[in-house]
Amino acid sequence: MTTEPHAPPPGTIACPRCGQPVGPDQDWCLNCGAAARTRLAPTPNWRLPIAALALVVALAGVALAVAFVTLTGNSDTPSQTITTTAPAAAAPATTAAPAPPATTATPPTTTTAPPSAATAPPNAPTPTQTAPGG
Fold first, then answer.
1. In this structure, are residues 84 and 116 in contact, taking their beta carbons and an 8 Å threshold?
2. Where along the chain do its domains lie?
3. Quick one: pLDDT band at residue 58, thresholds 50, 70, 90?
4. pLDDT for 105
5. In what helix (H) or strand (E) does residue 129 lie, and over which residues does it extend?
6. Dihedral sign for Cα atoms in the order 77, 81, 84, 85
7. Structure letter (DSSP) for residue 69
8. pTM of the full predicted structure?
9. 87 closest CA partner among 41, 34, 131
């Protein structure tokens, strides 16, 4: 006696992965586990949402940096204006003969140093200098 191959029941399909017969009441292949009658949704593509999120984070960082610089101000410009005056220019040296001594006494010449932040407070007395030969 010869045996004929067994005919599959009606509604049976071949597995898309391994080719084994899948019965009409089966959704999954019993041999390899692949979906035979169920359509699986493809995995979502996350590249576009991640790129959009990275762009939003970068723009927020730039906006935060601009706001920080605006609020803190420019540190290059002083917040208080300090004016200083240059001392009077010394008289040029002359090669003429010295004048005879005068009979009246002349008061000593005094110069005042310009104010600076490192000097004494404003209500402290200012040091004076006398000119040579006086």
1. yes
2. 9-40, 42-73
3. very high
4. 61
5. strand 129-130
6. positive
7. H
8. 0.29
9. 131
